[in-house]
Q: What sequence folds into this?
């Protein structure tokens, strides 16, 4: 089993694992990118490269911990609860209710309006991309001119929000990368 195969298996077991590839060539760079590797290092590796990698991982993990501490309070049919930000993939409108789509595949309905929720949670973690959608930036897989991919689902990006979505997506992709 090579490193790419092992990483694929790790991704199936632990979606949020921090992966770094170390190789003598860039032959598997594309596959590593598709697996959301934190870094792809080419040997020989200097001490400064390791320090940069560790700082990047530390920053990402700190952000994830903060997301897990923050929770979204919901209310639906007389019951209420809380969902950690890190477990929310995206939120959409369904009629006069909100649908909170979570990493475990469950969809929690809640009373409320997306505009009100946007003012409450959008910032470092969440981003409005459409009249009917707010997405968790940490769960974005890809972006093109009209949609985002989140956990294999296509989320539309409207022209109104496109510039900001593109800017935030690129910042997320290239954060910590030194050119």
A:
């Amino acid at each position: 089993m090579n490193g790419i195969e092992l990483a694929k298996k790790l991704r199936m077991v632990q979606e949020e694992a921090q992966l770094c590839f170390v190789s003598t060539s860039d032959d598997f760079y594309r596959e590593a990118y598709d697996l959301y590797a934190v870094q792809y290092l080419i040997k020989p590796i200097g001490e400064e490269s390791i320090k940069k990698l560790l700082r990047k991982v530390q920053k990402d993990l700190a952000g994830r911990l903060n997301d897990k501490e923050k929770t979204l309070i919901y209310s639906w049919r007389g019951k209420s609860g809380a969902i950690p930000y890190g477990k929310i993939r995206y939120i959409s409108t369904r009629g006069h209710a909100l649908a909170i789509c979570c990493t475990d595949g469950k969809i929690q309905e809640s009373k409320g309006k997306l505009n009100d929720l946007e003012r409450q949670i959008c910032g470092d973690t969440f981003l409005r991309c459409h009249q009917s959608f707010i997405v968790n930036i940490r769960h974005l897989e890809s972006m093109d001119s009209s949609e985002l991919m989140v956990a294999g689902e296509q989320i539309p990006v409207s022209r109104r929000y496109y510039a900001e979505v593109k800017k935030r997506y690129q910042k997320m992709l290239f954060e910590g990368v030194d050119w």
